[in-house]
Amino acid sequence: MKKILFVIALCAVAAGCTDASRSKFTAFGSPHEVQCWNYHQEIYHGISTGRVSHDKEGSSDTISFEDAGTHQLVEIMLGQSSTCVIKVKP
């Protein structure tokens, strides 16, 4: 009986999540393609080794990740004119 209640509760929670929430959870640890622009000029295009972190601490707005090609930490500070598109690699 407990297993049935657990499955019902799990289905209710899963049904209540948005597609974006489920996608964020399933994409954890997957490589991501990152493209960033500043004033319509591309300033970065690369692949991460895994999760991309987005930190909005205080007045800074930064994304950080490990570059798959160089295995170095990449930190991109976003400003008012900066845009980044982050997509999970298939």
TrEMBL record:
PROSITE patterns: PROKAR_LIPOPROTEIN. Residues 1-20 form the signal peptide. The keyword Signal applies. Keywords: Signal. It comes from the Bacteria. This is Lipoprotein. It comes from Candidatus Pantoea gossypiicola. The lineage of its organism: Bacteria, Pseudomonadati, Pseudomonadota, Gammaproteobacteria, Enterobacterales.
